[in-house]
Amino acid sequence: MLPLYIDPGTGSMLLSLFIGIATAAIFGLRALFIKLQFILSGGKTDKNAAFNNIPYVIFSDHKRYWNVFKPICDEFEKRAVDLVYYTCSPDDPALTAEYKHLTAEYIGEGNKAFAKLNMLSADILMATTPNLDVYQWKRSKNVKWYVHIPHTVDDLAGYRMFGLDYYDAVLTSGTNQNDLIRKIESLRPAITAKELVTVGSLPLDNLKVKYDANDRICNDKPVILLGPSWGKSAILSKYGEKFLTALQKTGYKIIVRPHPQTIVSEKDILEPLTQKFPDFEWNYDNDNFAVLNRADLLITDFSGIIFDYSCVFDKPLIYADTDFDTLPYDADWLSEPIWAFRVLPELGIQLKEADFNHIGDVIENALKSKNLQEGRQKVRNECWANQGNSAAAVVDYLMEKEKTL
User: Fold this and answer.
1) Which domain, by its residues, includes 310?
2) Which residue from 98, 252, 314, 355 has the least number of CB within 10 angstroms?
3) What is the mean pLDDT of residues 121-142?
């Protein structure tokens, strides 16, 4: 007899189906319990009490988003307002943070976490995680309002397709994100228009506080940081060894900071490169501040690190010509280039594959350029509103919204 085989795609679909059926069954039993309780109590049952309704919930799918959520937690604590924090990382800093009004809980990873979220009862749930109601993470019937807060000032069209369609609101960092969301909505008339509130960028605010509190680093020899994105259009996937060999020949101090998703999904690419180039510094810090502060120049592709580096550290960059493949992303619906690619020439110098042989000259020109500072200020104004006050703006919005729910 042939062994039974289920391919990964089918297995994932069956698991999602099982979770959906189990969730529906549990909600059905809970609803029946409430009805019985209502009858037996003479009509005095509080439905919210039966479902343990929570006013405010934050969901973090990884500890790296603590730089987004910590200022919000701080603001809730300052106002003495209770907040629940669910995380998929067992070592999330929230779990050991000393707050009186924060209840933090590790809820597991993947489908285990989504199973809990799919049965959640709350007024407002806020997350950086896209693709709500697209894959395993479903909207709970007993969560009244879903709020997305971006972890970057970059285009949200860089999310996987339908990434924001089923959120109720998005708290944007600047006008660049508002315009993009409305454009996508106009192309998908079946979805409901989201509430958009421009609050600013929590990560950039946090980064700027650190930047102001630390000394500037003056290196004897230029330090070059390679900070690529991930996927088949990114530097390491597309150029790999060829590009790193060209960097090695420059003689500069080279730091490579792979995208976190590369570490998870592209080990077959990453591991051979780390072995081939042991003289490079391979950086995996959860917090990118120290490495950005050390670097004199950034080389990247379409990673959101572009805007951390340009907006806060105000230093030059080189961006590789990677022919970004929009197919898996919301950007594929657009007829024009996304905002991030339109503003790149204002922030740095483009590097084409033909330039690899003289990349040292390109780096030297970028380090000496005085023409990009004005462009960085223009981009900063577009993508980073309400500078220094975003956390208060977020909590103001959440508390006002909760009143209406």
Assistant:
1) 208-383
2) 98
3) 96
CATH of the domain at 148: 3.40.50
The type of residue at 155 is: D
Residue 138 lies in a domain: yes
Give the residue, 206 or 33, on which the prediction is more confident: 206
CA distance 317 to 350: 9
Residue 386 falls in which region: left (phi positive, over 0), alpha (psi -120 to 50) or beta: left
Measure the CA–CA gap between 378 and 240, rounded to whole angstroms.
33
Burial of 69 (0-12, 13-18, 19+ CB in 10 A): buried
Distance in angstroms (rounded) separating the CA atoms of residues 317 and 347: 7
Q: Are 386 and 205 in contact (CB under 8 A)?
A: no
Residues 194 and 227 in one domain: no
Decide if pLDDT at 320 tops 60: yes
Average pLDDT in the 188-193 region? 93
Cα 91–chain centre separation: 18
Fill in the amino acid letter for 237.
S
Band the pLDDT of 8: cuts 50, 70, 90: very low
Mean pLDDT score of the chain: 88
For residues 319 and 27, the model is more confident at 319
Model's pTM, two decimal places? 0.79
**pLDDT, mean of residues 264-281:** 96
Same domain, 164 and 285: no
Place of tokens 């960059």: 317
Q: Which of 176, 216, 213 is nearest to 196 (CA)?
A: 176
* CA separation for the pair 205, 78 (Å, rounded): 18
Same domain for 81 and 168, yes or no, is yes
Region of 377 on the Ramachandran plot (φ > 0 left; ψ -120 to 50 alpha; else beta) = alpha
Q: What is the pLDDT of residues 346-379, one digit of tens each?
A: 999 999 999 999 999 999 999 988 888 889 999 9
Residues 146, 259 within the same domain: no
CB 311 within 8 A of CB 375: no
Q: Do 217 and 327 belong together in one domain?
A: yes
Cα–Cα nearest to 146, from 163, 161, 134, 132: 132
pLDDT digits (tens, 9 = 90+) for 141-153: 999 999 999 999 9
C-alpha torsion angle, residues 65, 70, 73, 75 (rounded to 10): -130
The CA-based dihedral angle spanning residues 10, 12, 14, 17, taken in that order and rounded to the nearest 10 degrees: -140
